[in-house]
């Protein structure tokens, strides 16, 4: 035979599983780093710095837990941050889509968003306190603002960046505008929305604590502010650590949820 | 005998200059073309000859600046499921599995769930992806992605397939295999195909007729009939007749000055 058969190449899907990262080593290094940090803190606190030692802080944390103060503060703070964050994200997604999808939406919203983006939400607090009183509403409102502004641009960008060919593909498959929006634009911009939500969460959390420092009767920020008056350093430390851990925990949670929603993304 | 499946009459397309300056770009300057039902036509030409613009006009994704494009005697007005399009960059929906991608168009056109399932199953098998029906696009190779896109286009039962350099991003071996598979699929389930490529071999191997275009302005330079028998086997590809036709098309593509 003079004609060679075409080579039969075996087909296999490209492996979706990448080489496992050295996770164990990373976790070990994390643990070592944390231990070293606490060690350093301890060394500094017994060498003339005015820090409470780690055991002192642990004891105070235990006391605050035992009489229920810490739980109440955490709950109060979480309620505010979650309410503000969820409302802010929801509004951001809605407005972001309007801006990305309709020229009119973009034209109407953009100046206001650009304007308010340059104002730190906390700078709005005095005004908001005067307008809305000193209850829960002003605090939730500034958190809402922080989360909204952080998330809205990202959502908008996500909608604008949806691959043109993908929309064309949907159109030639017979999808009408509503279907294209729900079945192409929304899923395609999900990764952007999630990034926006993560930034928004950080921003909301930071704003919360500061807003509680100014006007609150309970909450982690209030507790620290109060402790400052009595030079109660261990309580301040407990507050700082609680804020850090809660923020970290919420971010991880969001990252986990996001990972599930965007599993389809190509990892480059 | 009815009229041609696709009728392009004196179609032109002028793009306004980018940035509002002067010097509009004439992508197509008065192209006329007739394609019969179930014909397989390929279009080759240098970049800028307007071959993709021509396809987009037939797909309804772009409107002509002048002239008219008719499908089944009706002027093209926007995209429609009777004209399937296959893009060079696959354009699969990455968040949907192979099966869900194939079902996408049928969901748009309101095919009931059970029938959707069955038809998707059928076309997935036709392109040989049955083992990967539930896989996400990111786990597929380029060739498999394009096969999925072909199944997706077939599933809405278009009478015309418009293919815009579908194998352009694939390696040479995969390309040859997909060309053969495409012809197999086409002969078992005939449609009218307009296939754009910049590869002369591919143009001759697939087509019953090769349209060679020229640039500035985009126009039809030459039309070459390929009277090689189907099915096109490897023997056909390596035959002297094929070689002669390839030379002819090559001359038409690369030596358009005279």
TrEMBL record, chain A:
Which membrane topology term applies here?
Multi-pass membrane protein
Keyword terms of this UniProt record: Cell membrane, Membrane, Transmembrane, Transmembrane helix, Transport
The chain positions of domain ABC transmembrane type-1 read 74-254
Q: Where in the cell is it found?
A: Cell membrane
The residues that cross the membrane are 25-44, 81-103, 115-134, 140-159, 180-209, 229-250
Q: Which domain of life is it from?
A: Bacteria
Q: Name one Pfam family in it.
A: BPD_transp_1
Q: Does the keyword Transmembrane apply?
A: yes
Name the PANTHER family on file: ABC TRANSPORTER PERMEASE PROTEIN MJ0413-RELATED, ALKANE SULFONATE ABC TRANSPORTER-RELATED, MEMBRANE SUBUNIT
* Family designation: Belongs to the binding-protein-dependent transport system permease family.
Q: What protein am I looking at? A: ABC transporter permease
Q: What is the scientific name of the source organism?
A: Actinocorallia libanotica
From TrEMBL, chain B:
Please list the residue ranges annotated as the ABC transporter domain.
6-240
* A Pfam family hit: ABC_tran
Q: Does the keyword tRNA-binding apply?
A: no
| Name this polypeptide is given | ABC transporter ATP-binding protein
Q: Name one GO molecular function term.
A: ATP binding
Q: Which SUPFAM superfamilies match?
A: P-loop containing nucleoside triphosphate hydrolases
The record's listing under PROSITE patterns reads: ABC_TRANSPORTER_2
Sorted alphabetically, the keyword list is: ATP-binding, Nucleotide-binding, Transport
The record's annotation in InterPro entries points to: AAA+_ATPase (IPR003593), ABC_transporter-like_ATP-bd (IPR003439), ABC_transporter_ATP-bind (IPR050166), P-loop_NTPase (IPR027417)
Q: What is the lineage of its organism?
A: Bacteria, Bacillati, Actinomycetota, Actinomycetes, Streptosporangiales
Q: Does the keyword ATP-binding apply?
A: yes
């Amino acid at each position: 035979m003079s004609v060679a058969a075409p080579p039969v190449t075996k087909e296999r899907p490209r492996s979706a599983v990448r080489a496992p990262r050295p996770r164990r080593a990373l976790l070990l290094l994390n643990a070592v780093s944390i231990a070293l940090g606490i060690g350093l803190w301890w060394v500094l606190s017994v060498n003339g710095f005015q820090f409470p030692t780690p055991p002192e802080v642990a004891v105070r944390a235990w006391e605050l837990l035992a009489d229920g103060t810490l739980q109440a503060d955490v709950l109060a703070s979480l309620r505010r941050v979650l309410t503000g964050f969820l409302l802010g994200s929801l509004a951001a997604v809605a407005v972001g889509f309007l801006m990305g999808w309709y020229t009119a939406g973009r034209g109407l919203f953009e100046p206001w968003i650009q304007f308010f983006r340059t104002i730190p939400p906390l700078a709005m607090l005095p005004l908001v306190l005067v307008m809305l009183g000193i209850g829960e509403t002003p605090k939730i409102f500034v958190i809402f603002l922080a989360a909204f502004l952080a998330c809205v641009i990202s959502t908008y960008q996500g909608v604008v960046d949806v691959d043109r060919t993908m929309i064309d593909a949907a159109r030639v498959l017979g999808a009408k505008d509503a279907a294209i929006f729900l079945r192409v634009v929304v899923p395609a911009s999900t990764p952007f929305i999630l990034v926006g939500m993560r930034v928004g969460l950080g921003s909301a959390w930071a704003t919360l604590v500061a807003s509680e420092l100014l006007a609150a009767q309970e909450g982690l920020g209030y507790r620290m502010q109060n402790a400052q008056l009595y030079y109660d350093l261990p309580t301040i430390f407990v507050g700082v650590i609680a804020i850090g851990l809660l923020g970290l925990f919420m971010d991880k949670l969001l990252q986990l949820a996001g990972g599930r929603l965007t599993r389809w993304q190509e990892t480059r | 005998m009815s009229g041609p499946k696709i009728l392009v009459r004196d179609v032109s397309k002028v793009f306004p200059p980018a940035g509002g300056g002067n010097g509009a770009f004439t992508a197509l300057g008065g192209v006329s073309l007739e394609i019969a039902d179930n014909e397989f036509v390929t279009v080759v030409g240098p970049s800028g000859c307007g071959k993709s613009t021509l396809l987009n006009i037939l797909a309804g994704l772009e409107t002509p600046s002048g002239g008219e494009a008719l499908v089944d005697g009706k002027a093209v007005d926007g995209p429609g499921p009777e004209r399937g399009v296959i893009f060079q960059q696959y354009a699969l929906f990455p968040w949907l599995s192979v099966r869900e991608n194939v079902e996408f168009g049928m969901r748009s056109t309101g095919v009931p769930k059970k029938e959707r399932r069955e038809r998707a199953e059928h076309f997935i098998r036709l392109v040989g992806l049955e083992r990967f029906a539930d896989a996400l696009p990111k786990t597929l190779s380029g060739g498999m992605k394009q096969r999925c896109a072909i199944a997706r286009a077939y599933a809405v039962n278009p009478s015309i397939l418009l293919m815009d350099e579908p194998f352009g991003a694939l390696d040479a071996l995969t390309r040859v295999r997909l060309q053969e598979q495409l012809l197999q699929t086409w002969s078992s389930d005939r449609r009218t195909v307009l296939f754009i490529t910049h590869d002369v071999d591919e143009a001759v191997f697939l087509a019953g007729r090769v349209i060679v275009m020229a640039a500035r302005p985009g126009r039809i330079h030459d039309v070459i009939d390929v009277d090689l028998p189907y099915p096109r086997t490897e023997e056909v590809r390596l035959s002297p007749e094929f070689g002669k036709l390839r030379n002819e098309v090559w001359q038409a593509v690369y030596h358009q000055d005279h």
